[in-house]
């Protein structure tokens, strides 16, 4: 709009107070803003993809008194799962037996692993260290 007002003012009214610089600055700011937004969207997309890769593909589930490797789609609330040292926790849950240190830094941003004892809640994608 400032460009057209300046054009009219310069050509028709022969005035010296024009605002071409305002129009140029506005266009530049819009282009810069869109470039920054595009970069932020790409970065967020890569972060989401990285989080999805953290997830486990299967889980070790207690079935009829024996531990069996099962697909995550078959895990139901209330199932007992076993996570070994160095593995990622497959689903959100509560520790019912044992204890350990859980590194959830990729999910929560905490710098150090947290101790998980019986009754503690743990997050899917966390690493049992």
Topology:
Layout: H1 2-11, H2 20-54, E1 58-63, E2 66-71, E3 81-82, E4 93-94, E5 100-103, H3 105-108, E6 114-116, E7 121-122, E8 127-128
Antiparallel strand pairs: 1-2, 1-3, 4-7, 5-6, 5-8
Helix pairs in contact: 1-2
Judging by the overall fold, what is the CATH architecture of the largest domain?
Distorted Sandwich
Which fold name corresponds to the CATH topology of the largest domain?
Calcium-transporting ATPase, cytoplasmic transduction domain A
Top-tier CATH class of the largest domain: Mainly Beta
Approximately what portion of the residues adopt beta-strand conformation?
Answer: 15-25%
What's the rounded overall pLDDT mean?
A: 87
Task: Outline the biggest β-sheet.
Answer: 3 strands, antiparallel
Strand order of the largest sheet: 2-1-3
Order of helices and strands: HHEEEEEHEEE
Tell me the name of the CATH homologous superfamily of the largest domain.
Calcium-transporting ATPase, cytoplasmic transduction domain A
**What low-confidence regions span 5 or more consecutive residues with pLDDT below 50?**
none
Categorize the overall geometry: rod-shaped
End-to-end distance, in Å? 61 Å
Name some characteristics of this structure.
129 residues, alpha+beta, Calcium-transporting ATPase, cytoplasmic transduction domain A, 2 domains, 3-stranded antiparallel sheet, rod-shaped
Structure description:
The protein has 129 residues and is of the alpha+beta class. It has 2 domains: 2-53, no CATH class; 55-128, Distorted Sandwich (Calcium-transporting ATPase, cytoplasmic transduction domain A). The protein has 3 helices and 8 strands. It has helices at 2-11, 20-54, 105-108, and strands spanning 58-63, 66-71, 81-82, 93-94, 100-103, 114-116, 121-122, 127-128. Helix 1 (2-11) packs antiparallel against helix 2. The termini are far apart. The mean pLDDT is 87.
